[in-house]
Each structure stands twice: as C-alpha cells, then as structure tokens.
Specification:
The structure holds two protein chains of two kinds. By secondary structure, chain A is mostly helical. Chain A has helices at residues 2-5, 19-41, 48-76, 79-94, 99-120. Chain A folds into two domains: 2-41; 66-120, no CATH class. Helix content of chain B is 71%, strand content 1%. The chains are: A mainly alpha, B mainly alpha.
C-alpha cells in the first residue's frame, strides 16, 4: 500500500517520504500478529459474548449508515429537508415514541442550528445540488 | 515592571468599554468552546474584523478573552457527553466523563474551572515576570532538541495504555499512520491521498477527535437504548447522566483541591514549558500533564475511571499554554500556536509591532494587555461558575433525545470548519474506528497522542538526520537532547520494571 499511496521519493533514501510510514507499518504489523496470537491463545469457548458483539456492531453499523446517508442527503437535498428526516429517524431508533415531542424536538433543533450557524456564524448552510 | 502593571490595570478599569468587551469575549469563548466542532480560535478569526475600529487594548483584550474562555469551554461537553469541545479537552474527557456518569458532573466541571484558572494565572505571571529569559530557552531548542522532547512525550503512551502495552502501541501506530496522510512535511510529496484533493491537506484533528469520542459514544449508547416490548408500551425516560444527591458530589471540597494542588502546579509547569515552544500546542500539553500526573500518582490504575486529578492535570496544562504562547510572540515575534498567530494579526492591524520592539514602542499598551489578561481570568472564573450550571441541564434530557441531537450538532459543527462535507465523512469513519477500538479494548489516548506528535516527530527527525547526514552521533553533541533522551530511557526502563512487577 505504501508504494501505491506515494508516487515517488524513493531516490531520497533515508530522507524519503516513504521511510516514516513504512517504519510505522512494520511496527503495526508486528504488534497485530502478536495480538492475534494472544487473542487466539486466550479465546473463550462460550459464544454468547460474540453474538452480542455481532448484534452491537450491526446496530452501530446501521447508525453509521444513517450518518453517511445524512451526508449524501445534505449534499443533494440540502439541510432543511434532510435534517428533520434524519433527526426524526434517529429519535425513533433511539427509542423515542412520543410523536409530539419528537416533532417538536426535530423542528426546534433544525431551526436553532440553522439560525445559529447560518445567521450568527454566517456559515453557508448546504442547500442541496438538486435545488 | 510592577508599576507598569498597576498602571495597566488602571488604564483597563478606567475604560468601561474594554471591561465590557472582556465580559462579552468570555461569554463568546465559553459558548463557542462548548459546542463540538467550534473553538475559541474560530470565534477569534470570525470576530477580528469587528475589532478594526476599536482601540488596540480593547481589541486585543477582547480576542484574548475569547481564546482563554474557549480553552476552558471545551471541557464542558468533554465532561458531560464525552465529546471534547476543543482539541485541548480530549484528555479531560478521560476522567471527566467517568465522573459525570457517577453523578459528579458538577464536581468535575468545577475542578476543571479551578485548575484552568490556576494554570492560566501561573502562565500569565510567568509571562509578565520572566518572558525575556524564557524566550532565550526557547531559542536553544532546535530540531535535535525538539525531537528528543517529542520522544520523551511519546513515553506517555506507555502510561495511558492501561493493562495492555501492545494494544497501546498498536493504537499509537494507527495514530502515527493517520498523521502521515497528506503532504510530506519536508519535500511536499503527497502521501495516502488516493488522488483525492480532500486528503491532500491530511485529516483534520477536530473531525477525528469528535468522531473518536463523540460519535463513538453515540454508537455506544445505541447498545443501551431501550426497546418497547410492544408498540403500546411507554419507554421511561432514561437520563444518561444522573446528578448525585450527595451535596459533596456537586462541589470541589478544599481537601480535594489541596490533594490536587501538586498535580495542578506540575501541569502548570508542563503547560507553560510547552507553550513557550512554538508548534506543540495545548493538546500536547494536556496529554503530557495527564500522563505525568498518572505516572506520579499512588493509584495510577484509577486514571481513566473517574479520578479528579486527571481532570485537574489536563485542564491546568492546557490553559497554562494560553499565557505562555504569548511569550515567543512578544519576545521573538514567533506565534506559539494558532491563537497567538491570530492575536499577532490583531496587533499588526492596530499598528503595534510584533516582537521585542513592542516593549519599547508601546510598553504601556503591552502592560495594559497583560492586566486585561488577568482580568479575563477572574471574569471567566466567575462567569464559568454559572455557565457550567447551564450545562447540567443536559443531565435532565433523556438518552433517546440527547444523542440524536448531539449527532446533528456534531455534523454541523464539523461542517462549519471548512464548509466541507468530507470532514463530516471523516468524523463518521472515525466514530466507527473509535467504537471498534472500544469493543476490542484498544485504548484511544495513544492514538490521539500518536496523531498529535507524529508530524512533528517525523519533521524533526528528518531535519536532524539532514543536519547530521544520517549520523545519530548528533544527539551526543546536543546536551539538552541528550538529557531528554536519558530521561526517556530511564522512564521506559522503570515502566517495564513496574509492569513486570505488576504481572
């Protein structure tokens, strides 16, 4: 990966930009192998922990997917349409069930952030490429 | 000098506009610092144009107030929601959040405030009394000495790695590798940018930090959300943080402060020293202060689990940088960090020279600015005592509302840095990395330390090797570097012996 990640510089020898990353990668590789051996040696027979872990990773992966979807929607649809949608979805996912509170929280948060970042800090709020 | 300082106090207090600007600056700094993604430096950069028409003392005092208050402000979300508001508060989150989970959020924030105030006062006194002499020390630090200092700083990795040193080293290695993304610091070749222009400048520390701490915490909270057994069942509000009913848990007792005073003064010294050296910054000072406190503690295993000394050490060190980074600016004309660079800009805009000539050409102005710095510290201590109570409102919000809203705030905060959604993507990816590291019990602090120190370590090493044509004998010709390397070797041997004893 290092030769692919850097076009040139080998001719500089010890002062090459590849030396430091290469040195770090060698150390990481060595430590990773050591930790793999240690993990295999100390692994538990009971699989219940691993089932819970898999479920946790799937849930976390779901939230991350929502996060990346939010980024995509911000770029294409804009802040004012995507934020209420995503925020409402996250509230529901985290267990909120009172529709009135969820709608109020969504509207207040979207408006407050828009005012603070757009009007006070004068940041260009994403408007979306489609509009 | 004392007379000039007293006259400085007189000139500040005689102008109500300057005092008002200091108070407003403190409020702005606290607010900006406590929102993840925004920093006091950002506020300074945005508000410099407003200061064009102001008198010089008022203008610079306003900006200094924002910077100082912003540094402390970052500790509030770090303690309450494990999301540092500023890069300098990452070490504060380690113990601050654990204390908040035990119902001691106010205690942690008050200790952070007291330690920040003491750190700032310490470095300001140093600035006023011995700035010129300390600047000469800074001049003796070339690339050889800086590399040796960074190698010493990297030994903190061993202290904050917890039970598994190999996992700590792995984490540090990941941080060092992430820091190599972007342009090579010496010859400018692109590294690991995969032809993506967004990566040519490297990964931003703020998106990385908010992802590793804030988003990772949101992902952790996903595990703990309650699901209704059927659609009709109401979910009881589950506050993330409770406030303890014991009144002692909402204040810092005199005995606790006394217990931490040695740690605070050690961190003040570390922060002041780091602040004098341009380029290292408050984040490095905070971690160095934290690591040294852990090393010196009788119960180092309690750090990272809610030890109030950890909060005190980190905050004293990071705020001590604020006063000290004006030392190279005023004595040598070299800004110590971004905040000092912005203040240098403000000084030049108002026709004040940057460097030692400022004392000759505008001595009374300089001492008025010093006086304003002391007034700022008093102001942010007083205002901070009430401001942190507003943060406690977060303890009353239930998890299912708090964390989705935090997620959106983090997205907007990070987007604001460069108005670039790529940074938000970096934050999300870092969140996944941070969460995975927690699940596999790989400690996070070494990654942060590796990321912060890696670029400087590489640059100074390569400069050193260029100076010596590849020979390591150069270290033997630089006594300061040799001393740091010797201390590093002793520290490493002691650490290994302690670990062997513990096993």
């Amino acid at each position: 990966m290092i030769p692919l990640g850097m076009d040139t510089g080998e001719e500089l020898g010890l002062f090459s930009p590849r030396v430091f990353p290469r040195f770090i990668v060698i150390i990481i590789a060595g430590l990773s192998v050591m930790l793999c051996f240690s993990t295999v040696k100390n692994r538990t027979v009971d699989g219940s922990d691993s089932r819970e872990n898999v479920e946790a990773f799937i849930n976390a992966g779901g939230v991350l997917l929502v996060g990346f979807t939010y980024i995509y929607l911000l770029e294409w649809v804009g802040y004012y349409l995507s934020t209420p949608l995503i925020l409402f979805g996250l509230l529901w996912f985290f267990g909120a069930r009172s529709w009135i509170k969820m709608i109020m929280a969504t509207i207040v948060t979207t408006a407050a952030l828009s005012l603070f970042f757009g009007k006070v800090l004068k940041v260009m709020i994403p408007a979306g490429n489609l509009f | 000098m004392l007379e000039q300082l007293i006259m400085g106090f007189g000139s500040v207090f005689s102008d109500w506009f300057t005092v008002l600007l200091i108070l407003v600056g403190v409020l702005i700094g606290l607010t900006m610092g406590s929102i993840p993604g925004l920093t006091g430096n950002m506020a300074v950069a945005l508000l410099i144009p407003l200061t064009y028409a102001m008198p010089p003392v008022a203008a610079v005092s306003f900006l200094i107030a924002i910077t100082k208050a912003g540094t402390f402000g970052g500790s509030i979300p770090a303690i309450l929601i494990n999301t540092p508001g500023t890069p300098a508060a990452t070490a504060t989150a380690m113990d601050g959040y654990e204390l908040a989970k035990k119902g001691k959020a106010l205690k942690a924030m008050k200790m952070a405030l007291h330690a920040s105030t003491i750190g700032d006062l310490f470095s300001n006194f140093v600035l006023v009394l011995v700035a010129a002499q300390l600047a000469k020390v800074a001049l003796k630090f070339g690339p050889v000495e800086r590399f040796a200092l960074i190698v010493f700083a990297l030994t903190i990795i061993g202290m904050v790695s917890g039970k598994s040193l190999p996992k700590g080293l792995l984490s540090a290695g990941i941080g060092l590798l992430l820091a190599t993304i972007g342009m090579d610091p010496i010859v400018g070749f692109p590294r690991f940018d995969f032809d993506n222009i967004n990566l040519s400048g490297g990964i931003g520390f703020v998106p990385l930090m908010i992802g590793l701490f804030g988003i990772a915490e949101v992902l952790k909270q996903v595990e703990e959300r309650k699901k209704p057994k059927n659609d009709g069942e109401k979910i009881p509000p589950a506050a993330v943080l409770s406030v303890s009913s014991n009144p002692d848990d909402s204040k810092v007792t005199f005995s606790e402060l006394k217990k931490c005073i040695r740690t605070i003064f050690r961190s003040c010294t570390v922060g002041t020293f780091i602040g004098i050296l341009p380029g290292l910054g408050a984040s490095v000072a905070a971690w160095l202060g934290y690591g040294m406190a852990q090393k010196a503690s009788k119960n180092p295993e309690t750090f990272g689990k809610g030890n109030i000394e950890g909060v005190a050490a980190a905050e004293a060190a990071n705020n001590a940088v604020d006063g000290a980074n004006l030392i190279p600016l005023l004595t040598l004309g070299i800004p110590g960090n971004n905040a000092a660079a912005l203040i240098a800009g403000a000084l030049m805009i108002h026709g004040l020279p940057v460097g030692p000539m400022i004392f000759e050409k505008a001595g009374s102005t300089v001492y008025a600015i010093f006086a304003a710095a002391f007034i700022t510290i008093a102001a942010y201590w007083l205002i901070g005592l009430y401001f942190i109570r507003c943060g406690v409102i977060l303890t009353k919000i239930s998890r299912e509302y708090l964390f989705p809203i935090i997620t959106v705030i983090c997205v907007m905060g990070v987007y604001t840095i460069n108005t670039n959604l790529f940074d938000v993507g970096v934050m999300m990816a870092a969140g996944g990395l941070g969460y995975s590291m927690r699940k596999f019990s790989i400690p996070l602090p070494p990654l942060i330390i590796g990321f912060l120190l890696g670029p400087e370590a590489e640059m100074t090493l390569r400069h050193t090797m260029m100076l010596s044509q590849g020979s390591i004998g150069i270290f033997f010709h630089h006594p300061i570097a040799l001393i740091f390397l010797a201390i590093t070797a002793i520290t490493v041997v002691k650490m290994m012996l302690n670990k062997k004893k513990g096993d």
